[in-house]
């Protein structure tokens, strides 16, 4: 894992420090080793405590196979001990920022309709629900949400 704390933009770094304490966190990233021929990599991110061996939050950004410039955000999770402090919201912003910096034009994610916290985060951060379907295996209603990063770059 590589320490990429310096890549966190100041305004997001300030928010993370406001929640967790100044110099109490670091952002790590690595290829998750499953990248194929694509020039973009599957990337795994972890927000860690700087004081103890505690994983605070995780997520992945994966290039969508065969398509140009679209990444899938998956496996986003905040450790239960750190939930409802605003981290999920700030980390969603960081995820969008990193995807844009990595050169993607669109970011896509799925969420279960009953996941109030995640859907609230997506709504607050300007993601648009583009499709809803039922997962035949679980019976869950799943949302597919997207955010246009190209538009974001031009703002
Ligand atoms: C979804 C998740 C990442 C949210 O992380 P978090 O750090 O708790 O999120 P925040 O503190 O930023 O809260 C976001 C919003 O959801 C609300 N919220 C959070 N947990 C909630 C709950 N259990 N019930 C109702 N609302 C909740 C918050 O009040 C906040 O809304 P507000 O901004 O209007 O006040 C976290 O709950 C988690 O890791 N869940 C398990 C994994 C998961 O579901 N990942 C997403 C897969 S699609």
The count of helical stretches stands at 4
Specify the biggest β-sheet: 8 strands, mixed
Top-tier CATH class: Alpha Beta
Counting DSSP E segments of at least 2 residues, the number of strands comes to 8
Tell me what you see in this structure.
Helix content is 26%, strand content 36%. With 155 residues, it is an alpha+beta fold. The chain has one domain (2-154): Aminopeptidase (3-Layer(aba) Sandwich). It has an 8-stranded mixed β-sheet with strand order 1-2-3-4-5-6-8-7. Helix 1 (10-20) packs antiparallel against helix 2 (87-101). It is globular, with a radius of gyration of 16 Å. The relative contact order is 0.13. The mean pLDDT is 91. Coenzyme A binds next to strand 5, helix 2 and helix 3.
Q: What key phrases describe this protein's structure?
A:
155 residues; binds coenzyme A; Aminopeptidase; 36% strand; 8 strands; alpha+beta; 4 helices; 26% helix
In brief:
With 155 residues, the protein is of the alpha+beta class.
Helix-strand layout with pairing:
Elements lengths: L1 E2 L6 H11 L4 E7 L11 E7 L5 E9 L6 E9 L8 H15 L4 E7 L3 H9 L3 E7 L6 E8 H6 L1
Parallel strand pairs: 5-6
Antiparallel strand pairs: 1-2, 2-3, 3-4, 4-5, 6-8, 7-8
Helix pairs in contact: 1-2
Bound molecules: coenzyme A.
